[in-house]
Amino acid sequence: VEVVTGTDATLVCEVQASPAPTVRWFFNGQPLAVSPDRYEQVDDAKTNQYKLIVKNATLENIGAYRLEASN
To answer: Between 25 and which of 32, 34, 56, 57 could a Cys-Cys bridge form, CB atoms 3.0 to 4.6 Å apart?
Structure first.
């Protein structure tokens, strides 16, 4: 994903599971603490899409993101 510094980056994963899964995001192998001013998690079980929005992205946000889903 390419992002302009200072803009939001949206990462989208599609997960199909029944029942709807519990999801957790990781950044560089570490659990990501979702906070309203920095990271927003949007889960839509109807479309099976799980999004992480990195707000006001900076160079510090460069790395490997991963979604873990379980139920």
So the answer is: 32
The distance between the two most distant Cα atoms of the chain, rounded to a whole number of Å, is: 37
pTM of the model: 0.89
pLDDT score at 36: 83
CA dist., res. 68 & res. 23, Å (int): 6
- SS3 state at 25: strand
The structure tokens listed for 24 are 């957790």
Cα gap 31→16, rounded to integer Å: 22
Residue of 19, 49, 29, 24 lying closest to 39 (CA atoms): 24
